[in-house]
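Q: Hi! First time doing this. I have a protein sequence and I read that you can turn it into a structure. Is that right? Here it is:
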Amino acid sequence: MRYVIIGAGAVGGVIGGRLAGAGHEVVLVARGRHLDALRDHGLRLRVPEGELTHRLPVVDGPAALGELRPDDVLVLAVKTQDSVSALQTWGPAPVAGGGTAAERLPLFCAQNGVEGQRLALRLFRRVYGVCVWLPSTYVEPGVVSAAGSPLTGILHLGRHPRGTDETARLVAADLEKSHFEAPVVADVARWQYAKLLSNLGNALEAVTGPVTGEEAAALYRRARAEGAAVLDAAGIPYASTEEQQAVRGDKVTLVPLAGVPRGGGSSWQSLTRGTGTIEADYLNGEIALLGRLHGVPTPLNELLQHLADTFARERRAAGSMPVAELVRRADGAGVNTG
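A: Yes, that's right. Below is the predicted 3D structure, encoded as structure tokens:
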């Protein structure tokens, strides 16, 4: 199989680099300065064993590849807000022997949240969810890092909306030869919704900085409690914290990496890079949406979504709002932060 990584940033670049390092055929898809750096210098992957350079084919879209191969596996690793454009670009791409990518090829959505795979299923017949537990960083154009050890990450795989098949098992086998654990599960959405609850702190971290003090921790607990209440009201199952800890254990322990200062998660990185967009609409916004559908108030998640969107749009510095200011705004919005 050949892996086409659509969005070779922090998550996609690490997955592609690790697969390539294990001998698998990989094509990277990127844009802008990142595309240029990958073409000129290769993918530089900083991991606990050092900096690894992989000279891989790099394209900005399917036209550069000509017809796709019937054994291609597409890995969608763009931020959710960029999914529609990517899906509309790659779905109609022709596949050797007839048909299009949307008709014939498997698409694995390696993204936060749950919306990407729902968007994909509108176009693609064979969609797979991936619960991404992969601490990674976009360091600079052409350079990504992953500090996890002994494993780089844990990636639960399964068909969307449910089930498993031989393709999922083959991809999992390749990932498990590439520094990942990749359980194949029939209920991958249950793991993704559990990860969604954890990701509700992404906007908080992006706006106020690391969630370390008690005030910030209380805000995170409240955002998560709103999320759990919404999922329960909607009848959506999710893996418990204890179940997640039992699976993860100490398999992905972060270690210091030379030349990679410890930063924040994906939303914090979006603000730091000044991309102008952020995925809060599909994290805190997913909880706000479900809350409105099922009559459950979600004032803190709505506030965090609004602030994260504002920070991204105005290109405000990550972590620049004092926690006390956020607490004041939450109190004004009627949020119980105790």
